[in-house]
Amino acid sequence: MIPVTAEMINAGDIDEEYADLMKRITFLLDLWHDKPASNNDPYGRMVYFLLWLRQEVQARRIPIPLDRSYLGTLKYLTGSGDVRDSDDVGRAMGEIIHILQGRGLIKPRHYPLLVSLMDDFIAAVEKNRPGLAETDAFFREYCQKRDDIVAGTLKPPIEPTKERNRFDFASAKSLAPVLPGETNFDFGLRRQMIRTTYPLMGYRPLNVYKPPMPAPVPGLERMAPDFTALRDQERRKAAGEDK
């Protein structure tokens, strides 16, 4: 792996994270422009969250990472699939979570590091499985992606298509010493592969995560208020159990 530089990390630039958030917030709110903010259905709850997040990002009150207590609705709806109208929606919601958790998205300044990590993985596979490039389509594709990044013809993230959701490397089953469900499972190689395939799908390489960044404008509580008791009371009222 090549050395990680300060320029690659770009520590402290929270505006980069805000810009990435706003792009995805705008995409989702435009898509759901006819969905009213409401606590009565999944779309309404998601719109509520996005409106709140947009407000706080524009006010520069969101720290990175944001405490997990604020992410419950977003993570639940992302996992449940209740508002997953398309792969692009699921991707945007997942990327918002990734940004708010402090992991960030890949940028062109990270490409040299990604290529270096891919080179390390290729060398490790060739050492353990010599000749694999001649027999394994997955590994040949992986090597081609590496060459395409170097040539400038591929600029991660690799966008999903109708035929391929995200990037097939993450679910490939051909590298026997790498992936689960095969013989001679190698956790080290598996970890190396994950650290390169996730950046190919758009996520920042682990080695260049930014350190925590406080909000430029203080004011947001560190943890979200707990409205559990109020929520339960409202539910009892709706059910006629609490007069």
Automatic annotation (TrEMBL):
Region annotation Disordered: where it falls in the sequence = 217-243
Q: Which domain of life is it from?
A: Bacteria
Per UniProt, the ranges with Basic and acidic residues bias are: 229-243
**Name of the protein in its database record:** DUF4194 domain-containing protein
Q: Which organism is it from?
A: Acetobacter thailandicus
